[in-house]
What we know:
This protein is an alpha+beta fold. The chain has 10 helices and 12 strands.
Amino acid sequence: MPILSCLRRVKLAIYFILTTPSHHQSIRTFRFGIPLLIKTEYRQFTTEADALRFLNASGLDLPIPRLVDSIAIDGNTYTVMTRLPGRLLRDEVDQLSDPEVQAIVDDIQAILHRLWTLEQCPEDAGKVMLSASGHGLPNPMTFFESYWGPCPSILDCYFDLGRHLRDPDIDDWTPDIYVAGQPDLVNAVTADRVVWVHSDLRPQNILVHHGRLSGIIDWENSGWLPLHWQVHALRGARVGYTNRVRSIWLNVVFPPETEAGFKASMKLLRYLPV
C-alpha cells in the first residue's frame, strides 16, 4: 500500500477516534469541546472542499464553515470543517415570529449580495456549471446523480438542458437553431449575470441563533451559475422547504434581468434546474 494512502488512513482513524456520531448519519462531531465536525460524502469526488477554500479566501467574511482538511479514500470523501453555532431553520421555523423569519430572510439576502460581488477569473469569464475546482457541478437533469459541465456560456448550458425541445427532424441541432426557435426566452436567460450560487439554500442548510442567521452550510453544489438559478433554489417547492419561508421569497424582487431570466427558464425547461 502506498505511503500516502497509509498516511490518509491513519489520519482518518485519528479523526474517527476524536469524534462521535451525530443525529445526522453523515456528520460526526469532535469530542472535548473541539468546535469541528467531519462530514462524509459517499462519493469519491465532491466540490465542497474547493468551494469552502475559495469562499474562505474571498475576504467576504461569510458565515460559513472554514475548511480544515479533506480526505478522499475508499470511494468516500471526508471533509473536516469548523462547526457553526445555531440550529437548523427547518427545526426552528415554527417557533419563530413573523418578524424573526423576515429578519433571517433579510440576512440571507445580504449574504447573497456579498456573494454576487465575486468575479470570475478572466480565463473563466462567462462559464457556467463551473465549480471552484474547475470541474462541473451536479447535473439537475439527473437529479444531481452525475456531474456535468463546465459550459462555455449560459447559451451552451441551456442548449444542452433543452434537449427535450429539439426538433427530431433536425439532425444538425445547433445553438443558432435553438435561439431561432425560442428567441425571446433564450435571450432572457442569457442576458442574466453569472454569479456564485448556493443551489441548495433550503432551511436544512440555514442555521439560526436567537432569531437571526448564524450560518449557511452545505456548499457542495455551489458554483458559477446564472443568477436566476439562485431564485429557483429559493422559490422552488422542494423537499424540506416550508411554505412559510418560501412564501417570503416569492415576494422578494430580484433585479429585472434576473426576474426575466427566471420566468423564461421556467418555460424553457421541462424540469427546472436547482
